[in-house]
Amino acid sequence: MIGLTLTRYLAMRFLQTIMGIFITISCLMFVVVFVEMLRRASDNPQADAAAIALMTIMRVPAAAEMTLPFAVLFGAMATFVNLTRKLELVVARAAGVSVWQFLMPPVLTALVIGVASITLYNPISATMKQRSDQMEWEFFGAPGTSRLDHSVWLRQHSVDGLAIIHAGGATAAGAELSGVIVNVYQPDGGFLERVVAARAKLLAGVWVLEGARLTTPGEAPRIVGSYLLATDLTLEQLASSAAPPQGTPFWDLPRLGEATRQAGLDATGYSLQFQTLLARPLLLIAMVLVAASFSLRFFRFGDVARTISGGVVAGFVLYIVTKLFSDLGGAGMISPIVAAWSPALVGSMLGTLTLLHLEDG
Fold it and tell me: Which residue in 279, 316, 314 sits closest to 293, CA to CA?
């Protein structure tokens, strides 16, 4: 073990560099999103610059959270390069400090950042993102600057049988739908009727569809003032189905996932997001090990640019593999646990194996 002073010094150097890079990325995101929001609000007199700035500030933390692994990767590589150029790591090695000893502070720093990001940062950023989406509904009528499809799909079982509900949009946490199309099936699975309505509202145990047009096989279409569709869905279950897993706070994911399963909906996304957040500390540690496996070559070789490029490419490959496994898990081809933990485990093992080969022969 190395001394407390050296441990604290190395940990602070890594923490300052990583936080500096993360804050810089967040500021760049703020500028880009703010300009895009101003462009969208150019024809909306209610959305002034102060409201747009507030909405952007609440939106950026959730978007910047996705860049945290890259901030750790670039921060670790920058710190290793800086310590090497100032001969601080050379002196540490000359004093008998091994690579595993001076890697312990950055690994612990990555672990602390990962734990803090899922227990503190993620709930706050997700809550701010939800509030930002609500403000965007008020200003623009549809959340998300990049989403092209704002439709909602619901699948419910009730005393009337199975019903597949599609809506063009939703408000009030999913309790009020617009542009509604409902396919109703009998308890034995046979098709019963198709209902098209301009609006639908959830009350206690029933959907109320206003201005509904009913189409039943073998009968002429007819229009009714209101159509009542029995449902077992609750407001909480609707809120869980309307909120995307990526925008749900960490502490709410298990509860909302269970509520989604009870509603007869697919809860794979919530399970995958929960496991992905749990695996984040290990993923950040893997980024540190990948950075070290390339940056520590500077002690023996002078081609800094090529080595840095190799580390950046390796980090991007690990991130792409993570997204690939996430897509496979979201599609149900592999379990959420395997999809979330495999890239972090493999990245950590490869980084450790590379360091063992370079440092210990």
Answer: 314
